[in-house]
Design a protein that fits this description.
This protein has about 350 residues and is an alpha+beta fold. A seven-stranded antiparallel sheet has the order 6-9-18-11-12-13-14, with no helix packed on it. The longest helix has 15 residues.
Length: about 350
């Protein structure tokens, strides 16, 4: 779309039911504002909460004309034929023996002929039998090795429908090993592999985040401030990626941050509650997100700081790791690492 002067500052498309910031004149779709801020609109450019509808401004006539033109040139919708019904493949009939599965008390099934040597009824029971003891010990290295061994041993076995009754406390993608990259950032931030730096004269928070969010499970990563850091950072998560990266993610209702002045921030650029310790350019901050329970917690130099927040909103993905930097600040990050056992034990209490 060409620049008409009536684009939404959030979605960068022609603003629909346009709302205008009375302080700086920025324009937004009404739906974009509602999705991000709810009823309490806030301008991402100047943080003003004063808005008026374009229908109450002198721009209404010009806006209506552009809106009409944009609707005229829209291509007509082509009715697509209904999708073909999927072909269901015939599966080989499963043969169950008279002997009970070794997990019979949980699954109530007999041994499947495919797994006669393992004496289980299904692939899920096989995994449960081999890995559950390691989960209880939090031995993640052995878990990974055992999964590799199991995958190699069952290559020629036909997979069976997933059995959902086995009460695993942690599923295999929920053991705290999470890989991601910081690859989206506000202007001025530089990203070099695992090192992120902001150096500028302005005193405005800028956010760096990942373009891919967590969907489920338990996740743990570390942020290590660089010695050149002169200003505190805001470190945490966001449940949305629809905001201006030239602002701090925790200024919005969907952003949750440990502000390293010793505060926790959510939906505000000025207020928060006391949490954790104060630091600037030393130590290591661990971030622990449990999407099973909707809990966010932090650790500093290996010491658990307690649960920062618990919310149903943190149970649903995508959830994006974020850091907001100010003026001159930088950090390295580590991911794909297991949760330290002492932190996990305190977190689960």
């Amino acid at each position: 779309m060409t620049d008409t002067g009536f684009e939404c500052s959030l979605c960068i498309k022609l603003a629909i039911k346009a709302q205008i910031c009375e302080k700086c004149g920025s324009m937004y779709c009404k739906k974009c504002l509602q999705e991000i801020f709810g009823k309490n609109y806030e301008c991402v450019q100047c943080q003003s909460k004063q808005f008026r509808s374009i229908k109450k401004s002198a721009l209404q006539e010009a806006y209506d004309e552009i809106l009409i033109k944009s609707q005229i040139i829209q291509p007509k919708k082509i009715e697509k034929p209904p999708p073909k019904q999927p072909v269901i493949e015939q599966r080989t009939q499963q043969i169950y023996l008279n002997e009970k599965c070794i997990n019979f008390e949980m699954c109530q099934n007999n041994i499947n002929s495919i797994f006669i040597n393992e004496k289980v009824c299904s692939l899920e029971c096989l995994y449960f039998n081999k890995i559950q003891p390691l989960l209880e010990q939090q031995d993640f290295t052995k878990i990974r090795k055992e999964i590799i061994n199991l995958e190699q041993s069952i290559k020629n076995k036909e997979p069976i429908q997933i059995f959902k009754k086995i009460p695993l406390s942690l599923s295999f993608n929920q053991v705290g090993v999470s890989n991601f990259n910081f690859d989206r950032c506000g202007q001025g931030i530089t990203i070099k592999q695992s090192t992120i730096i902001l150096q500028e004269d302005e005193y405005t928070f800028k956010t760096v985040t990942s373009s891919v969010g967590f969907q489920q499970g338990i996740h743990f990563w570390k942020i290590i401030p660089l010695a050149m850091t002169k200003n505190e950072m805001k470190i945490g998560i966001s449940t949305s990626d629809k905001y201006d990266l030239k602002t701090a993610f925790s200024d919005y209702n969907f952003g949750y941050a440990y502000y390293t002045v010793g505060q926790f921030r959510n939906g505000s650029n000025s207020n928060g509650f006391e949490y954790g310790v104060k630091f600037k350019n030393n130590g290591e901050l661990g971030i622990l997100l449990d999407m099973n329970r909707g809990v966010l917690a932090f650790s500093y130099n290996g010491n658990f700081l307690g649960k920062a927040i618990s919310s149903e909103l943190l149970k649903k993905g995508p959830i994006y790791p974020c850091v907001a930097l100010l003026h001159q600040a930088g950090f390295e990050f580590k991911c794909g690492i297991p949760i330290p056992q002492n932190i996990l034990e305190q977190f689960q209490k």
